[in-house]
Amino acid sequence: MPATKYNARDVVFQIENYASPGTWVAISPLAVNTFTKSEDEETTDTTTFGSAGQAESMKMQIGKSLQLEGFRLRDSATGALDPGQAIVEAMNDRLGTSSLTGFRWAHTTDTTWTVWAQTRVSLGDQGGGNNDEVSWSATFTRSGPSTTAAKP
Q1: What is the pLDDT of residues 30-62, one digit of tens each?
Q2: Phi then psi dihedrals of residue 96, to 5 deg
Q3: Whole-angstrom distance between the N-terminal and C-terminal Cα of the chain?
Q4: Which residue of 48, 84, 106, 131 pairs with 110 in a disulfide if CB–CB is 3.0 to 4.6 A?
């Protein structure tokens, strides 16, 4: 079967509950309307006099991050945040080794998760105008290698 396009809206995201390692909590799909996966790299210059004026370099390090954007969800009766968003917001305030937790995602038809076992979280701006819903965004930055895990 040939490769085909697939819907971004069918990708699901989960964060590991730092208070209960091994417990994964979904970030509600109602909270997300855009995601962007990014990659970066660090290089070292290997140019010498023998390079005859032509730049030479090697890739030495790669990094990955994923940003979610959408809406901040909260229970209108209790004021409680969406459970996944609550963990994300709490992770934003943690420091040192406590600032790392797991993050994973997969398309609904995938048989495996992409897993970043060690991930740090940075919240983006929140807000809105007169006729807006409150916005929400977070960036998840991988620390260490990516792995995979079978989906149940």
Answers
A1: 999 999 999 999 999 999 999 999 999 999 999
A2: 60, -145
A3: 25
A4: 106
